Amino acid sequence: MGTTQLEPVPEPKYWHLRNLLGQALDTEFSVGEVLPNERDLAARFGVARATLRQALEQLELEGRLQRRRGVGTTVAPPRVGVAVGTRRHDWPGTADDVWQPADCVLAAPPAAVADALGTGRDEPVHTVRRSRGTHGLPVAAELLYIAPSSVPDLTAIDAPSGAARARAVLRELQRGELEGQESAVELGSAGAEDAKELDRLPGAPVLVVTTRYLAGGRTAALSVATYRADTCRLTFGDSGDVEIHHGPQTRAS
Amino acid sequence: MGTTQLEPVPEPKYWHLRNLLGQALDTEFSVGEVLPNERDLAARFGVARATLRQALEQLELEGRLQRRRGVGTTVAPPRVGVAVGTRRHDWPGTADDVWQPADCVLAAPPAAVADALGTGRDEPVHTVRRSRGTHGLPVAAELLYIAPSSVPDLTAIDAPSGAARARAVLRELQRGELEGQESAVELGSAGAEDAKELDRLPGAPVLVVTTRYLAGGRTAALSVATYRADTCRLTFGDSGDVEIHHGPQTRAS
DNA sequence: CAGTGGTCTAGACCACAGG
DNA sequence: CTGTGGTCTAGACCACTGA
């Protein structure tokens, strides 16, 4: 039964290293503390720097480490819970200070978005760019597509674009009746534009939340929001937060 | 796809390569098709194999490629939408053929789980292991923790463990009244055990869905499910599917 | 068996942060 | 400037698949 034995096929070094480091993080380091640099760590474990980096990459993906070029590797705080899809049947921006509108233009959206909105492929829609922060740190960037028919009374706005116009469009959108919404979450990587806004490098892992807002029997608006996967835990549900932090790696070797 | 040019832009090579390959996937390849092997591709683009691999890694993370050792790299089908958190206020396994119970034991859970369930840290709970598949492929592995008090009438079961017992526990659980549920989604990496079950290598990216089931004013059960991040799109919401496949990379360079 | 992707090495140089 | 992480190279060998 429970015998410890040498594996006939040893597990990869980077994986073993990840487990060792993860254990060390639990016992010997506290949040915010800086680790030794990669070259020292690699030497200490007797592996090449690339191998050590592969282990650090894993831990960063799991939200346990934070690496910044020119600075160093630090122990990351627990992921922040970010409410997504609570307050069901609420239009975006209803009681919001978390989202900060940045811009709004009238432009033709990607074809897939146009199809979902039921607008023509070359028909311009309101495109709102917003960003979301928590504790002063950026966590999400969003692109909100709103069919013109959903915000009919957009008369008194003279600004053709900019944050002021974004706020006006959102205000107008909230006058409509929202019937439902549905979301999907998938893994993606930050494009150059989002990466800059999220203070990450291009290709950084993000959780892409696509939400469709239903009103008047059709899709009235559509949001594509990208959340930093390293720092965020997205919460859905009927009530408050889910506080289990069982750790993002599920069952170790 | 026969190009060889890589201008000296400040953009990292692997990122540029990712964009080139992604574009090629859209225009010159169809789902299931196998790409040239990594050594050939690297030579064709005039980069080291490691650099080429970094680009492929990105595309695999975004669900556009599938790589299998000993076989090759193929163009992945679009991600499958997996319903999570629909049919609100339903116990797990209510009308399920998607989840397949594998085992059930009575054991002390991790400390964080015991705290959430409100049981003592050394108090054993029912621990059900299930797996979920779609189109014959495994997509998720779950660990379900159920407080013994939530399934009081577990008398007629003689099996101390196994799939039969798992089914019995789930059946008993559904006799209770579920008041609500809340979920959280975060990025993690598959442990050795999950990796095998999901047919991936250890460290593979997974979406970890933690769900708390509320009944009788407290947490009656708790689920930690890990979904393959490369093949799954998790859907939440009031109604059907969200079909936008805007592509997991949000806005390219 | 031959061919594939997965792991690993030991270097090099670059981009950036901070003093 | 020094020190950090980020990128990149050109190899090597291993583990696995399928013929």
TrEMBL record, chains A, B:
InterPro entries: Bact_HTH_transcr_reg, Chorismate_lyase_/UTRA_dom_sf, Tscrpt_reg_HTH_GntR, UTRA, WH-like_DNA-bd_sf, WH_DNA-bd_sf. GO terms for molecular function: DNA binding; DNA-binding transcription factor activity. Pfam families: GntR, UTRA. One of its GO terms (biological process) is negative regulation of DNA-templated transcription. Residues 11-78 form the HTH gntR-type domain. The keyword Iron-sulfur does not apply. Keywords: DNA-binding, Transcription, Transcription regulation. CDD domains: WHTH_GntR. PANTHER family: GNTR-FAMILY TRANSCRIPTIONAL REGULATOR, MANNOSYL-D-GLYCERATE TRANSPORT/METABOLISM SYSTEM REPRESSOR MNGR-RELATED. This is Putative gntR-family transcriptional regulator. It comes from Streptomyces ambofaciens (strain ATCC 23877 / 3486 / DSM 40053 / JCM 4204 / NBRC 12836 / NRRL B-2516).
